[in-house]
Design brief:
Layout (H helix, E strand, L loop, with lengths): L1 H18 L1 H12 L5 E7 L17 H9 L1 E3 L2 E2 L5 H10 L27 H7 L3 E7 L27 E5 L11 E2 L2 E2 L9 E3 L29 E2 L2 E2 L3 E3 L11 H15 L5 E6 L20 H23 L6 E7 L42 E4 L8 E3 L3 E2 L3 H8 L16 H4 L9 E5 L5 E5 L2 E4 L23 E4 L15 H16 L1
Parallel strand pairs: 1-12, 1-13, 2-15, 3-16, 4-5, 4-12
Antiparallel strand pairs: 2-14, 5-6, 6-7, 8-11, 9-10, 13-14, 17-18, 18-19, 19-20
Helix pairs in contact: 5-8, 6-7
The structure holds 2-acetamido-2-deoxy-6-O-sulfo-beta-D-galactopyranose and calcium ion.
The site of calcium ion has 6 residues, from loops.
Length: 514
Amino acid sequence: YLLSALCLFLIVFFLSCNRSPSGTKKSTEKKTGPKRPNVVLIYTDDLGYGDISTYGGEIPTPHIDRLAEDGLKFTNAYTTASTCTPSRYSLLTGEYAWRAKGRGVAPGDASSLIKPGTETLPGVLQKAGYKTAVVGKWHLGLGGEDGPDWNGKIAPGPLEIGFDYSFLIPATGDRVPCVFVENHHVVNLDPDDPIQVNYRKKVGNWPTGKDNPELLTTKWSHGHDMTIVNGISRIGFMTGGKAALWRDEDFADKLVEKSTAFIRENKDKPFFLYFSTHDIHVPRIAHERFQGKTDRGPRGDVIVQLDWTVGELTKTLKELGLEDNTIVIFTSDNGPVLDDGYEDQAGELVGDHHPSGILRGGKYSAFEAGTRIPMIVKWPRQIKPGSTSGTLFSQIDLIGSFAAHTGQDIAPGQAPDTQNHWDVLTGKDSAGRKGVVQEATHGVLSYVSGDYKYIPPSDGGPKITWGPDIETGFSENEQLYNIKDDPSETKNIAEEHPGITGKMREELMAVREM
Ligand code: NG6
Ligand code: CA
């Protein structure tokens, strides 16, 4: 009798413990600690160091400027390359893209560059319990060795490397196929009208920019003379998939719609949103309501559109009460360019707006404007509003910093170039990393450390020869600049300072051979 009474007592005791709401709460808190910050990474395309007004630009960008007023603005932050694919590869994997071949600007039918099993920024956060999404430009290849199967299941892709949800412009706006991909499939694809894509020869009979320029709403200036979709000729040939074709004017709206839906669905969990804008890459086709908003032509209008986008994301976070504990990082994949292949008057109308700010060069370039980019971090719970940081920071350190902050290990041999600089990212430390390597077009590497920038000798000429009017920064001689005293890299002091030059050369070599 006593034994059964004891059993009954124990059963009642355990049941009441499990039911107690306060007991449950306590044990969850113990397990996960206080709620981790959400992360919204706004990764813009081709936005220069001087393109937004808080960095001196002449085009008003009040919503982006507001992020800086509420957060921390970096003046010495770098992306890893002056073109898109390698920057994005390094950002997501923590490995310099140049460590292996085939990670330059990817064609629109490239296979997945980041292999499943690779440690990634979203993967690390996923392991830490985050819901993760990518919305926007991908440009890191899709599918297996034969490339993407546009008419079937498109995999591997973001979902196989750490994202729970994806809504993609598969490559860039100027590359076919001109369709969105949501998770594993093309959106709105009619199976009776399959998509064909070819980057070498024409497929189907759709007009091209080369043969039918009279059909174009924006003319091409170099490249971009293949299949016409929505009045714009692209890189690559395509046919089929008519019902799935995008309208460039709707990019910003579509990406905002998908992102805000993701934020709303996950408002009660920690989430990571990699919001990868199409703006301000070519073709620069703003929504009708933004066309003509500036007197600087389409390039100005898409900057205003980009600013609106940032405003919409900020508004959603605020509305849901998430602003205080969400880290918003706003930055760019590479430096600016005016004519990047379409006659959109970017150069003619730029006036006194300086996309590169005080820096020399631009997209594709080894000079500073190629890779020194705007970067703003807002996190009201931890970061002092209106602060600035001149500490060296590289986007390659986001994965290492978030891994450390969320207590995740990175598998040995993975993410070899990332470091934890959480305190720099959140404005609490001014030591920063020792040096950082940048990759320009044609794989030319340069190195920044302390006050100096070193560019080793290379074959390429001083200007890009195939289109954009940009200085490459290439020379047959070694170059050394004191970027603190001479941020515009006007005076090569390599010969004057052989000691510093030699040290920089050796440090770059050591990173290359690591
Ligand atoms: C270049 C394209 C340019 C742009 C760039 C990639 C030509 C002539 N130019 O090859 O328009 O698409 O590639 O830009 O085709 S990025 O920002 O995605 O790296
Ligand atoms: Ca880019």
